[in-house]
Design a protein that fits this description.
The chain has 291 residues and is an alpha+beta fold. The protein is built from 12 helices and 7 strands.
């Protein structure tokens, strides 16, 4: 089985590019929403606000962006690499590996970010180079690419796990809460269920979440529902009514009231705003349209 590199995402499962050479055919491709996206900044400042941390800003940053993201990070003018792949590349047979992928990509949010130590970055460079060498062959072998990608992802999982071993027990509980939330938020929307699964009282879970995230369990459940609603409004062909039913609402008016209460605008207003935003090409990897 072969995988020929192609700028059209509908014809490929894995896509690699240097950030400086990412063409409009990728940036504007409607199939881009189906891909897990890894943006690896090399010796660069972070794209997100790091003022609340003591992490050194300049260095290697890996941004893990899940499919159906609502907005894109602005990587214009940055040095680094882009790696995108479809879920089919991972496979469904290894459930534990697939769950680890979902965790590190923060599928309940917009993205997650890893700061790489120098020795880890060097290890990843070696693996990435092997993958790029195979990818650039006239007829790249998909089996080999999948194997190398798995090694690359396993190393990122290890980095993420190391982060959590350095966190306190409450940080781990927050992480476990989000893992549970991802699998249950459409069907179960009460804090008691999640607290019980974690062996905590609802009051204690809310105390931990407020301390770490300044939000209650119910607020985070609502945030997750709104995020999914926005993803479906932007990336699907479903009507607002169909989206409301997919998300477990009994009728469209109830969904619209909920959406406006949480965001300050109706689903229709958000849809119009996002369409205008995309037409202005505000979410790109590069500001240079000549690439």
């Amino acid at each position: 089985m072969k995988n020929v590199p192609d700028s059209r995402l509908s014809n490929t499962l894995i896509y690699l590019r240097n950030l400086h050479h990412c063409p409009p055919s990728y940036l504007d491709d409607p199939h881009r929403k189906d891909f897990f996206e890894i943006v690896w900044l090399r010796n660069e400042d972070a794209l997100h606000d790091t003022r609340s941390t003591d992490i050194q800003v300049k260095g290697d940053w890996v941004y893990l962006i899940p499919p159906y993201r609502v907005h894109q990070l602005n990587k214009a003018g940055k040095n680094g690499e882009l790696l995108s792949f479809k879920r089919e590349v991972i496979g469904e047979e290894d459930k534990e590996f697939l769950l680890d992928i979902f965790k590190i990509f923060n599928v309940q949010g917009e993205f997650s970010c890893l700061k790489l130590e120098k020795n880890v970055a060097e290890e990843l460079i070696a693996v990435f180079q092997l993958m790029r060498d195979e990818y650039q062959k006239p007829e790249a072998d998909l089996v080999i690419l999948k194997a190398i990608l798995r090694v690359f992802l396993l190393k990122l999982i290890k980095v993420k796990e190391q982060e959590f071993t350095n966190h306190d027990i409450h940080q781990k509980r927050v992480f476990d809460f989000f893992t549970l939330l991802e699998s249950n938020y459409i069907q179960i929307r009460n804090t008691d269920f999640y607290a019980g699964k974690l062996g905590l009282s609802s009051k204690r879970l809310n105390q931990i979440l407020k301390d770490k995230l300044d939000k209650t369990g119910m607020q985070l459940i609502h945030d997750r529902i709104i995020l999914e609603a926005k993803r479906l409004i932007i990336h699907s062909d479903y009507t607002i009514k169909e989206i409301s039913f997919q998300l477990g609402f009994s009728d469209r008016p109830y969904f619209s009231r909920f959406f406006k209460k949480q965001t300050g605008q109706t689903p229709e207003q958000f849809q119009k705003q996002s369409q205008s935003h995309r037409l202005q090409k505000l979410n790109t990897l590069s500001d240079d349209s000549t690439l």
